[in-house]
Structure formats: structure tokens, C-alpha cells
Write a sequence for this structure.
């Protein structure tokens, strides 16, 4: 990926940077691997808004990503690197020897013509290959990691991220996550070798409100700009502070820096060191 910065010909252009998509090799998605993605407007099945500031945005097809990669010991060839509007990372179209096609999250430096394979045994160490953590050498970067063996990758899937395999002892492997958290994962869980593609995604600047609307995000209003009936921070004459001991959400719950993780969560015993604030 490359980043293009425009000349400041307008106020919006002055702050904007865009993706050049130089690493994308195919524009249209594989028709057999997409499905309709409906807009919800942030509403649940009863019609109530459960996530605010959602609505509009460009139409998108959802790409069916293979997070399990459970086609074991069958070599697949990379035939395209594609853009996915639903994630920051690039996706790769894999053609397997038996003719089946699947999308996988592409690692850095994966190219057309490369061969990848998933296996429950020890295989060649190269980016894109997938195997149990117990068969991966210590110190390597891994991504798309399973929490529960066989469930499919749930951890480390965003653009540019990678976890480091620190140690394997007993039934568990010690892994340092991109957040700096150190935790235990079953050594039987599958992980893919490498680092997720498109690391420059974090350097893009949206630049103007219109591009945010294209992403399906509507404007957010400050609580202190509302009336008392609408928000705990509302009311007062002129420009006022929030007038409370601590910031609150619109529903009156503490916000901004408050721990929201459940106490006594089942996975607490697997976390060795919490992430750095």
C-alpha cells in the first residue's frame, strides 16, 4: 500500500490522505464468495437504536473470509490480492488444488503465485502457512489466532498487527499481543505465520466529514451542547463545564477511562500481564 497526499487546493484536501491501492491486483470480488450486507442504522431486531451514530454510507458486499483455514494439507495458490471494504487488511484469493476458492487475510509481502498450506503437522515456515502453535518456532510473528481450537481465528486480524510467540510450556503457549498484553493460548490452537498486510492503514487521514459519512458514521453531538433532559452534561447558561464529578454517558453511567471489563471473567486466568494504558 502507498499513501497519496494531495496539494491543499481546498480546506478538505489540506488534511486528507488516501490509499493508492498499489498492492491490490483485482478490482471486482469473486462472486461466489460475497453476500449482501444490509444496513442496520445501529438498530437491533426490535427496531431500537443500540449503537448510535450509524447510518448511510456506501453500499458494500460482505466478503466471506475463511478464518478457520481447515482445508488441511491441500496446497493453495494465491491468485489475487484484493481490497475489502469491511476491514483495513487486504484479503487474498486462494485457489486450492481441488478447484475450491477461498478468501483469507493476507500477510505482508504475500504475492500472486505464492503457495500456502494449512496443516495440523509441522510444515514449512513461511508467511501465510497455518499450523498449531506448538509446531511454530519461538519468536515468530503470528496472526489470526484461535482462542478455542477448531473455532477459527479470532485474535490479531486487523491491518498491520502481529503477535509474538514467547514460550510454550505444558498445554499453553505464551503470546504477546499487539496491545502489549501477555496471555496464554492453547498450544493446539491454529495460527498463521506472518504479520497482517496493509500496515500503513493507521496513517491514513480521513480529512473531512464527508468521507466519514461514506463510512456509514453519522455526526456525534457533545453532551454539554444538549439540554438537561437529553444528557447529564446538558444545560447551563453560555459555555459551561459538565458540572459533575466525572464524565457520564447519555444514560448516566461513568465514562472516559472507566473499566468496562467484567470482574471475574472466565479468561482472566489466561492473562499474565494486562496491556499498558
Amino acid at each position: 500500500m502507498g499513501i497519496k497526499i494531495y496539494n491543499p487546493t481546498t480546506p478538505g484536501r489540506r488534511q486528507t490522505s488516501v490509499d493508492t491501492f498499489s498492492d491490490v491486483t483485482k478490482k471486482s470480488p469473486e462472486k461466489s464468495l460475497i453476500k449482501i450486507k444490509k444496513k442496520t442504522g445501529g438498530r437491533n431486531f426490535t427496531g431500537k437504536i443500540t449503537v448510535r451514530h450509524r447510518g448511510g454510507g456506501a453500499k458494500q458486499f460482505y466478503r466471506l473470509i475463511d478464518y478457520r483455514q481447515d482445508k488441511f494439507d491441500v496446497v493453495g495458490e494465491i491468485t489475487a490480492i484484493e481490497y475489502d471494504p469491511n476491514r483495513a487488511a487486504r484479503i487474498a484469493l486462494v485457489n486450492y488444488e481441488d478447484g475450491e476458492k477461498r478468501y483469507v487475510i493476507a500477510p505482508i509481502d504475500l504475492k500472486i503465485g505464492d503457495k500456502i498450506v494449512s496443516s495440523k503437522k509441522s510444515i514449512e515456515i513461511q508467511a501465510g502457512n497455518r499450523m498449531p502453535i506448538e509446531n511454530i518456532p519461538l519468536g515468530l510473528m503470528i496472526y489470526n489466532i484461535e482462542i478455542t481450537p477448531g473455532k477459527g481465528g479470532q485474535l490479531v486480524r486487523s491491518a498491520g498487527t502481529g503477535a509474538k510467540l514467547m514460550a510454550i510450556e505444558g498445554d499453553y503457549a505464551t503470546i504477546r499481543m499487539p496491545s502489549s498484553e501477555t496471555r496464554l493460548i492453547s498450544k493446539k490452537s491454529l495460527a498463521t505465520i506472518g504479520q497482517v498486510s496493509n500496515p500503513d492503514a493507521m496513517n491514513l487521514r480521513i480529512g473531512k466529514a464527508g468521507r466519514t459519512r461514506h463510512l456509514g458514521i453519522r455526526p456525534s453531538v457533545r453532551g454539554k451542547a444538549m439540554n438537561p433532559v437529553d444528557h447529564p452534561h446538558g444545560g447551563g447558561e453560555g459555555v459551561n463545564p459538565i458540572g459533575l464529578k466525572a464524565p457520564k454517558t447519555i444514560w448516566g453511567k461513568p465514562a472516559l477511562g472507566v473499566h468496562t471489563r467484567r470482574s471475574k471473567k472466565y479468561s482472566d486466568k489466561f492473562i499474565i500481564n494486562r496491556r499498558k494504558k
